[in-house]
Amino acid sequence: MKNKGVFICIEGLDASGKTTHAHRLVRNLRRKGFDAVYTTEPSRGEIGRFIRTYILQRKRRVPSVVEALLFAVDRVDHVEKEIKPALEEGKIVVSDRYVYSSLAYQGAAELDLRWIEEINRLALPPDLAIYIDVPPEVVVKRIRRKKSVMERLETQRRVREVYMKFVENGKLVAVDGNRRKDEVAKDILTVVLDFLKNYSNFQSV
Ligand code: TMP
Predict the structure, then answer these.
(1) Which residue's alpha carbon is at the smallest distance from atom 21 of ligand 1?
(2) What is the value of pTM for the model shown?
(3) What topology is assigned to 6-197 in CATH?
(4) Mean pLDDT score across all residues of the chain
(5) Which of 27, 48, 61, 121 could form a disulfide with 42 if both were Cys (CB 3.0 to 4.6 A apart)?
(6) CA-CA distances (angstroms) from residue 107 to 38, 92, 138?
(7) Which of these, 165, 97, 160, lies nearest to 129 by C-alpha position?
(8) With a 6 A CB cut-off, is 101 part of the ligand 1 pocket?
């Protein structure tokens, strides 16, 4: 059954500006009269918070299989507790990262993409998925502090390769993120407004 609301996710490498742009998109949509909400993965729920301490704040990587499973569990929790209820209320939900992050990051760690898809089968598919494309060399320069394993150049290059596969097969819409913030924000808003125009019966309040 079609959702009452619209589910959008924003993807990108670390420090690609995706959090800034997800927030800006929500503000811009609200200005246009849409009821939009921001959310993020790892989620703000208990499992998401556990992931931040157990995986992201560590120096050494936990096995990729464990990462993939934990992100998938958090995703189901996120969908059930936050995303579905907001969609039921007819909102536009903008998620800062979603299933493509698992495919790209855990896929870059050599896990089989089909298996990652399989464990995420219960995750509601997004209506629109946007990839903010910034070269790995640029994001790595932006991350000045000591880099975690996920943020190193080689990792970011592999992650981008996986994201680009989904851009090529039309699952992700790419926006050039290596420009002034205002230009990037404008392009993202245009992609979303064009999408909403063709999304049957969806109107601003
Ligand atoms: P962020 O603050 O950029 O959102 O960082 C979250 C980190 O978690 C980022 O390095 C990507 C990683 N991640 C995965 O590896 N798999 C996932 O499924 C998600 C949601 C995030």
Answers:
(1) 101
(2) 0.95
(3) Rossmann fold (3.40.50)
(4) 93
(5) 48
(6) 26, 28, 22
(7) 97
(8) yes
CB 6, CB 199: distance < 8 Å: yes
Beta-bridged to residue 133, according to DSSP, are: 176
Whose tokens are 């990051």? That residue is 105
Question: What's at 147, amino acid-wise?
Answer: K
Strand order in the sheet with 173-176: 36-40, 92-96, 6-12, 128-133, 173-176
Q: Tell me the per-residue pLDDT of 68-88, one tens digit each, with 9 for 90 and over.
A: 999 999 999 999 999 999 999
Looking at ligand 1, which atom is closest to the CA of residue 18? Answer: 3
97: Cβ–Cβ under 8 A, 6 or more apart, which residues?
Answer: 9, 10, 11, 18, 40, 41, 42
Band the pLDDT of 144: cuts 50, 70, 90: confident
Residue 32, CA atoms < 13 Å, CB-side half-sphere: 16
